[in-house]
Design brief:
alpha/beta, FAD/NAD(P)-binding domain
Length: 582
């Protein structure tokens, strides 16, 4: 459940009759959504928006695509300007205006305005009846020697994007991206598209750390195909300054000469001013209830700087996504103007997508690591279905994983990577999570089908069928991370064809094609010698069929979820050392 406020908080709901002055600190997604919604439902309110930067409403998700040249001009990134917002919504938008002090007793905000031309400043105080905080976050600066180099840049604002593209157009040839999260990889791809040699450095053991290892491997392979150099499981230790370039030195001793360093290791909530005023925070993030109210009277908060409660795990953390921020801004405005009828802000499920080369990589809900850390018992199913009918040209496989609760089958999370179709399936699964659906419910979803667009059994339906079999016991699964355990304690039965087996297999595995299995059960029984049988194939379908034969013949059998495709993705580079060929 969302954080519940104290009695003083719940007693501070503002009635529409006494809301005249609404002040919003911070624009972009959450703040501007709140201001625009407030105007639409309160025409007579005086609404002032303070933004310390130069842009109050810009497409921050589009910044990497400007750097990469897909968005031709920076003005395309401007969603609204102070002038357009004033004309259409009668909002008083003040840029270059930073809130430096909050007096919640007097209900005033102190503002410093900086003239962008002269640098001159002036200070004034604004009263408010309702205050909405949307301060967002600031880039984390790691304790790296030399991080103050002028060649080190972030990518959070339009000026950041302009400066980075100017650096590229001025002749930069090499770039190092510190951090392989969503923004870091988008920046890396943009710079690679501009012809730069790109190195990506990530402290975690794989790129896009929120992803499960098996889906992240798709990203790793695509980044490598694009020509990028990946350094995972290692930190940047220092940056040396030289006249014509910098050198990034990694903890393993690797030295990388570069013309540009992109800092993208995360953000922290920009809330210190408000903490000083008595605002309750947790690890810097603003604590709010399910209407966005803070502990201070008549003060609400939205966006990246607020603490959200994860809908799946109950974990409390900021969620830096534009969609939840936009929706929260709208609902906060509703609560300020009409508290009796305002809907609560829903708990986020964290749906996100990133383009990596030819692939879309998407996720929703909790990952395997998050679920494990939260102590939630769950099943995982790995599938590799085609994005549309196999007989129609252009069909490609989707790497898909779905996690669901062991107790009741409730869908907990999903991830997908594909050249086409990942977004569609993750959006369906995100909707299923929001609706509280179980894995079996996916079987019955009536999804659009035509050969160019999908299959009669859509990948989402297939996930439901697979998961229903797990819940009923018709399928027992084993997983790639159990490989050594299975090699030590079970017979691994590879039911692919002989040619596939010869092309790469687990050492010691018995190879019997699934079509021959019924006639060779005695051979399996002799080889197993009382041990469990763990079956595998290419993607999981043939091993499922073999498992059903073995199970009904009395064997202790289980099938490798996702087959050799998922096993190789889990092993990564280690697959070359573990698997053998003939």
């Amino acid at each position: 459940m969302p954080h519940q406020t104290s009695a003083s908080q719940s007693a501070t709901s503002t009635n529409a009759t006494n809301v005249h002055n609404i002040v919003v600190i911070g624009g972009v997604a959450g703040g501007m959504s709140a201001a625009a919604r407030a105007r639409r439902i309160a025409e007579t309110a005086n609404i002032i928006v303070l933004e310390k930067g130069a842009e109050v409403s810009f497409a921050n998700c589009g910044l990497p695509y400007y750097v990469g040249g897909e968005i031709a001009t920076a003005d395309k990134l401007q969603v609204q300007t102070p002038q357009s917002l004033g004309a259409s919504l009668n909002l008083d938008v003040r840029i270059h205006s930073e809130a430096t002090h909050l007096d919640h007793t007097a209900q005033t905000v102190t503002v410093i305005h900086t003239d962008p031309t002269t640098g001159d400043t002036d200070s004034y105080t604004l009263p408010y009846d309702a205050l909405i905080l949307s301060p967002g976050g600031v880039a984390i600066t790691p304790p790296i020697s030399g991080i103050d180099s002028p060649r080190v840049r972030t990518l959070r604002t339009v000026p950041d994007a302009i400066a980075m593209r100017n650096t590229v157009e001025a002749g930069a040839k090499r770039a190092v991206v510190l951090g392989a999260g969503f923004i870091g990889l988008e920046a890396a791809e943009a710079l690679e598209a501009q012809g730069l040699e790109v190195h990506v450095v990530e402290l975690a053991d794989h790129v896009l750390p929120p992803l499960d290892t098996e889906i992240a491997d798709v990203v790793t392979k695509e980044l490598t195909r694009l020509g990028m150099h990946l350094h995972t499981g290692v930190a940047a230790q220092s940056i040396e300054h030289h006249d014509t370039h910098d050198t990034v030195i990694l903890a393993d001793g690797t030295r990388i000469d570069t013309d540009l360093v992109v800092l993208s290791v995360g953000v922290r909530p920009d809330t210190q001013v408000f903490q000083d005023a008595g605002l309750d925070t947790e690890r810097g993030a603003i604590i709010v209830n399910n209407h966005g109210q803070t502990n201070l009277p008549n003060v609400w908060a939205v966006g990246d700087a607020t603490l959200s409660t994860d809908a799946v795990t109950g974990i409390r953390r900021p969620v830096a996504l534009a969609g939840p921020a936009n929706r929260a801004g709208r609902l906060v405005a509703d609560h300020i103007i009409n508290p009796a009828t305002a809907r609560p802000i829903p708990q986020p499920v964290g749906t996100a997508i990133v383009r990596i080369g030819e692939y879309g990589v998407a996720m929703t809900g909790a990952s395997r690591k998050v679920l494990t850390d939260a102590g939630i018992a769950f099943h995982s199913i790995y599938l590799h279905p085609l994005n549309h009918a196999g007989y129609f040209p252009g069909a490609n496989a989707i790497s898909l994983v779905v996690h669901f609760a062991q107790a009741d089958g409730r869908i907990l999370g999903a991830q997908a990577a594909a050249k086409d179709g990942a977004d569609k399936r993750i959006d369906v699964l995100a909707t299923a999570i929001r609706a509280g659906m179980n894995i079996e419910d996916l079987i019955d979803l009536d999804l659009a089908y035509s050969p160019p667009f999908g299959q009669a059994k859509d990948p989402v339906n297939l996930a439901g069928m697979n998961g229903a079999n797990v819940m009923s016991g018709a399928i027992r699964l084993w997983y790639p991370w159990q490989l050594q355990q299975m090699r030590d304690n079970a017979l691994i039965l590879d039911v692919r064809g002989a040619g596939e087996y010869a092309g790469g297999h687990v050492p010691g595995a018995l190879n019997i094609a699934h079509t021959d299995l019924r006639e060779r059960l005695d051979e399996v029984r002799e080889a197993a010698a009382g041990r469990p049988v763990r079956v595998m194939c290419h993607s999981g379908m043939r091993s499922y069929l073999a498992h059903r034969i073995l199970d009904q013949a009395g064997f202790d059998s289980a099938t490798l979820s996702g087959g050799m495709l998922t096993l190789k993705a889990h092993l990564g580079d280690a697959a070359h050392d573990i698997l053998v060929t003939e």
